[in-house]
## 1
Amino acid sequence: MEDTPAKPPLSEIEPEDCVGVDLGITSYIHTSENLSVDTLDLSDEYDRYAREQRKLDRKEYGSANWEKQRRKVAQTKRTIKRKVRDYQHKLTTWLVTEYDVVAVEDLDVKPMLETSQNAKNKQDAAWSRFIELLEYKADLHGTHVEKVKPAGTTKECAVCGVKTAKPIWVREHSCPACGHQDDRDLNAAKNILSRGLKQIGAGHSESTPVQTALPTFTPQRVAVDAKRVVEAGSPGA
Ligand SMILES: [Zn+2]
């Protein structure tokens, strides 16, 4: 086994090499640099799976035809898993090679309420595997992954910190206290980055560049199609 590279010391990390990643509802990921990457469309694959499953239900249980059909069902299921996995591999590899610090929500503790409402994209429920993969690759590439508390990342204003409740269909963050406006997911990604930076700065006496990287600017939104990630291997230009 090869030696894994050392993670860069915090004092050497530049603010532009840090990113906050919101694990999405409308997009798969939305970064603090305002890059949103689409959810992989697997509706054809799910349709096929449902079709094969219905065929299986019509076969006589335990018969040779049933067994043959059972294998078909398993195969369509594997195809879905493989495509999701491949997508996650591409995105996590891109994140750990592009950045030195990647902050994400610690979704083990997040109630799955919001994502279960979006049940049509079942792969959305695979976030804990996405994070596991991200952490695994971060170790291989010498990248810091900071898991932060997810509570309030959507409500909080990334500029002034005032909390405003917003229902899921409200896509804009518009702060009643300071007037700051952002895309809802971008605002959340900035909060995630801020929390991650505070976390790695904690217990660190000297001031580091990353501690001053708190995001207040709004870069232009870049929307990346899932197809592009699949074909090009990353959402990067
Ligand atoms: Zn504000």
## 2
Amino acid sequence: MNTPNQLTSEIHEYGFRFAAWTHLIPESEIRRLLRYKVKYYFAGGKPGVLPLEAWTQILKDVGEELYRLIREGKKRDVLEIFNYEKTAGFDPLRKVLADRLEKDGVPMPKDEKERINSVTIVTGSQQALFTITNILIDPGDIVITPAPVYLGMLGPLGMHQANIITVPTDEHGIIPEFVEKAIGKAIEKFRRIPDFIYVISDADNPKGTTLPVKRRKQLYEIAVKYKILIVEDAAYRDIYFGGEKLPPIKSFDKNNEYVAYLRTTSKEAAVLRVGYCVLPRPIVDEFIKSKGYQDLCTSVISQVLLKEYYEKWIDKVLPKAVEEYKRRCKTMIESVNQYFPPGFHTKPQGGFFVWYESDKRGFNASSFLENVALKNNVNYVPGAAFYPVESLGYYYNPDNNEIERIKFPLNTMRLSYSLLPPEDISEGIKLLGKLLNEHLK
Ligand SMILES: Cc1ncc(COP(=O)(O)O)c(C=O)c1O
């Protein structure tokens, strides 16, 4: 194998020697696709239903309150809002979120101070994914993920050169029996216990699947049995339209030991780059240490605005938004059924995404995107973006109970219904279906 220096010295005409990971990991497909302006945007998970009136009111209310404080001679208090804060977050927001999390099934201590300390604020839950990887992974360590997996998890894992063992999923998400077998095989093959299992239990990204309660319990039991951390990414927890919500895996973790529970404000409030998490006691100090070296703290004014939103607005405005996402999801599913060539697609109960797999195994969704879809004003994310790169990726194959080098189908796509109104979704999916049908004739 090349050393990082050999890899890099040829690369840059100015002689900069980039870190090895920069050659291993390509730019995120979603960030790349954000550069193309298309009419029918089905690529990234951009929230399309944000409570804009509420936000203008919150800005006004907070602005007036700060102005009042200045007039009353309390400039010092206002100065704090535009300043550095504790790395772990702004306490009033942490308290409001702790109360909400408890109502949502997350175990919380009774003591007020401990409750506040149970919630760690991050600069987007993307930072939590990076930070957990940063404190747990050395090159060659092992992480278990679903196949396919959220590509925002793949980036940090690749940067830290983790071996990524992907485990098969079905229409209900990751299959716990295979997770346990993959752990056993990982121990045999790599002589290491995986450092964590990454899973999105509610409305997965990219597949849109929701894990049944039985699987949630099974995963928790596996975590305890093998003493492996579960990273439960609940980014879409509040964008759920499937009836009563299921208990998070975190709800079984009564002593706060094995599950890192990650939430974001991006989908349910606005993209202010604030996430929040409940971290197991054994990792919280290292986590905050790492976050501190990344950003010192998360923007305080954003946290002040979000405290207002979670305290006074979310319960009034979110149900309407969720209803609208439900409508968009329904429209997308109906349009895929009506216009797409034969294939399988998921039927999400929440979140932003439908996953489609063409019956034609030879179909290449990546080249179709470049050569046909983008030229016709439509985009989506090819499914290939949600699998690890070859040098780091593995696949647990249930057929022979072996861990093999990664392989994955190219005939898949992730379609986001979050951004566009239903009329544009049906028009765009009709157009994409026509193009696919012509291409696959
Ligand atoms: C599953 C999942 N996790 C994490 C994130 C990152 O969210 P944030 O905006 O909080 O960084 C996203 C964003 O799309 C996501 O889909």
